[in-house]
Design a protein that fits this description.
The chain has helices spanning 16-25, 28-34, 104-119, 134-142, and strands at residues 2-3, 7-10, 60-67, 73-83, 88-95, 124-130, 146-157, 160-170. The chain has a domain at 2-124: Aminopeptidase. The chain is of the alpha+beta class. The chain contains four helices and eight strands. A hairpin with a 2-residue loop joins strand 7 (146-157) and strand 8. Helix 3 (104-119) packs across helix 4 (134-142). Bound molecules: coenzyme A (COA). Coenzyme A binds at residues 30, 33-34, 75, 93-95, 100-106, 129, 133-136, 138-139, 142.
């Protein structure tokens, strides 16, 4: 397990799956905001890639996020689009509603940076999020990500086009322990 100051990132366990399905992916609005594809329900027991991890998949590493204190499941964190030639990857994060606003998102980004830069030897990490997602923007910026641009009307979300913000962090600018 990879550990931060508040959360740990570990492998997906079988009993995480019904919790994630019910509390995260069955929520149409949140799923539509967090994913770049249309919402559709996940059939219980199906091998949907949002829940069931394929350890052989090279370009995507999904983690379950747990509280360090007690091990309760609080969400998912993913390093995706891993490009070993350009040494870059993207970060994705989704916490259960009851676990938001407690600093877990900021800490999970820090742990994903450690995984990307130290464990995987990447040079650049990237986050795309809706321009009104204050908590994600702040979680990224607290870890040193800088806004590199706005993707105008790039996301179709529940009946309207919304802007996304593109944030990036280079390994040489990364300060592992200081969240400013
Ligand atoms: C986005 C998300 C991962 C952020 O994690 P979080 O644990 O809620 O965020 P934190 O508690 O670490 O807060 C980070 C900062 O945002 C601020 N913040 C938190 N929730 C906020 C909100 N609803 N509105 C405005 N600011 C907020 C916090 O005060 C904190 O700022 P500070 O560091 O200046 O104190 C989480 O809210 C989430 O899973 N949301 C739904 C899914 C999603 O949007 N995923 C991202 C898709 S790209």
């Amino acid at each position: 397990m990879l550990t931060g100051s508040k959360v740990g990132l570990r492998a997906r366990h079988e009993d995480d799956i019904p919790v994630l399905r019910t509390e995260l992916y069955d929520d149409v609005v949140n799923s539509s905001r967090a994913e770049g594809r249309p919402w559709r329900p996940i059939t219980p027991g199906s091998e949907d890639s949002r829940l069931v991890v394929d350890d052989k998949e090279q370009g995507r590493v999904p983690f379950s996020v747990v509280e360090l204190d007690g091990g309760t499941l609080v969400g998912t964190a993913t390093l995706w689009g891993i490009d070993d030639h350009n040494r870059s990857a993207h970060i994705g994060l989704a916490l259960l509603p009851s676990s938001r606003g407690k600093g877990y998102g900021t800490d999970a980004v820090a742990v994903l940076c450690h995984y990307g830069f130290v464990v995987r030897g990447l040079q650049r990490l990237q986050i795309e999020t809706l321009s009104d997602n204050a908590a994600m923007l702040r979680s990224a910026e607290r870890n040193g990500f800088v806004r590199e641009g706005v993707l105008r009307s790039s996301a179709w979300v529940m009946g309207e086009f919304l802007d996304e913000v593109l944030l990036g962090l280079l390994v040489q600018d990364w300060k592992p322990d200081s969240k400013s």
